[in-house]
């Protein structure tokens, strides 16, 4: 039977709960912001251990808003890894600032501390560093935080894929000035449409971002600054509150699925030529289970899996410095070899909650049948 990359509709009991709370929102007449959104924000603070949470219209806006709050714009630079989902770089370019790309380290593909330090020494107009917790694994939080403090540059954490991720016993997302999170439906904490949120422990920064979220209004029709429409719909908040109640179970299930993959792969010989993702010392949330396949076999294996009805995907095939829209920055092949190798060798397998043991057996069996 086909194995999907993700199936969002398998937990029928949870879907029934979501349908019920949506119906209540529809009857309430309060559709944007309001009590459901406020309760969601309070529950996020309790779960993540942060002082302030601010719901947003998307994970992208949760990264754009802090750049706006810092006044970043033309003439400024923001350092970020060249390997991530496009929003990480796209929000910087949208402010008019220049994204300055940094290579990643080879294990978890987070921004490389040594390369970041070198880039900070070269760049004189840096106004922020944006580091990414990729695929559910944390970047080197202590090293990156220390480098940013030494340079006097604020750290923005792109935590879009890191709900449930822990670093040295603490939830990720509390070490920088702020963190931007996504609740896109495929995320571990996924809504029923676009959404996201921002977290911070800085009250003044929170207040500024809150104004920016709603067209820069300090009070109704009084606009102290020019902001945007980054508000969350109440229906999204209500659905996400249901899912947030189960987030620890979701994280545990994904980790169990990752462990099962390792057990199943250990019974084959495929690990002689492909590499499974490395677990972390504390808690990998496994937003994705990303293998590393030799470049000469990756695309053929991807096609083989598709022919077998097995869901799989490449995250991400083109690093930022080689994207057509950033051609003006004069990036070229070979500039960031670790990221380029990751782009050419990464292949993600199904890991979602609801994935069955039988489906995982089929996934591993299909890979074992692949002829190189």
Please give a structural write-up.
The chain has 372 residues and is of the alpha/beta class. It folds into 2 domains: 12-245, Aspartate Aminotransferase, domain 2 (3-Layer(aba) Sandwich), CATH 3.40.640.10; 247-312 and 350-368, Alpha-Beta Complex (Aspartate Aminotransferase, domain 1). The chain has helices spanning 12-28, 35-48, 59-69, 87-94, 113-122, 141-151, 203-213, 234-245, 247-266, 295-307, 337-345, 357-368, and strands spanning 52-56, 77-81, 98-102, 126-132, 155-158, 166-167, 170-171, 178-182, 196-200, 217-219, 222-223, 289-292, 346-349. The strands form 4 sheets. It has a 7-stranded mixed β-sheet, sandwiched between helices. A two-stranded antiparallel ribbon has the order 6-7. Strands 10-11 form a two-stranded antiparallel ribbon. α3 (59-69) packs parallel to α4. The model has no long low-confidence stretch (mean pLDDT 97).
């Amino acid at each position: 039977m086909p194995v999907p990359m993700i199936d969002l509709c398998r937990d029928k009991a949870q879907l029934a709960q979501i349908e019920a709370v949506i119906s209540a929102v529809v009857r309430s007449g309060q559709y944007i912001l309001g009590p459901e959104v406020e309760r969601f924000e309070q529950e996020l603070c309790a779960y993540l251990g942060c002082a302030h949470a601010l719901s947003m219209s998307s994970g992208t806006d949760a990264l754009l808003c802090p750049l706006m709050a810092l006044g970043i714009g033309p003439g400024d630079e923001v350092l970020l890894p060249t390997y991530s989902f496009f929003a990480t770089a796209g929000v910087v370019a949208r402010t008019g600032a220049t994204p300055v790309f940094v290579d990643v380290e080879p294990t978890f593909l987070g921004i490389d501390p040594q390369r970041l330090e070198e880039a900070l020494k070269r760049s004189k107009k840096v106004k922020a560093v944006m580091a990414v917790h990729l695929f559910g694994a944390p970047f080197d939080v202590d090293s990156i935080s220390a480098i940013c403090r030494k340079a006097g540059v604020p750290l923005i954490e792109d935590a879009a894929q890191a709900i449930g991720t822990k670093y040295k016993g603490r939830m990720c997302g509390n070490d920088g000035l702020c963190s931007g999170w996504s609740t896109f439906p495929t995320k571990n904490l996924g809504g029923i449409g676009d959404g996201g949120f921002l977290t911070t422990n800085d009250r003044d920064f929170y207040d500024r971002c809150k104004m920016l979220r709603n067209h820069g209004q300090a009070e109704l029709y009084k606009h102290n600054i020019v902001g945007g429409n980054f508000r969350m719909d109440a229906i999204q908040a209500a659905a996400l509150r249901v899912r947030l109640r189960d987030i620890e179970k979701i994280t545990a299930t994904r980790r169990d699925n990752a462990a099962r993959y390792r057990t199943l792969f250990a019974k084959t010989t495929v690990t002689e030529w492909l590499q499974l993702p490395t677990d972390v010392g504390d808690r990998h949330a496994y937003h994705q289970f990303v293998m590393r396949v030799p470049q000469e076999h990756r695309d053929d294996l991807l096609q083989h899996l598709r022919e077998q009805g097995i869901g799989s995907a490449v995250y991400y095939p083109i690093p930022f410095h080689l994207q057509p829209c950033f051609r003006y920055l004069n990036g070229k092949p070979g500039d960031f070899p670790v990221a380029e190798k990751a782009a050419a060798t990464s292949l993600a397998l199904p890991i979602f909650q609801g994935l069955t043991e039988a489906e995982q057996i089929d996934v591993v069996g299909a890979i074992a049948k692949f002829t190189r």
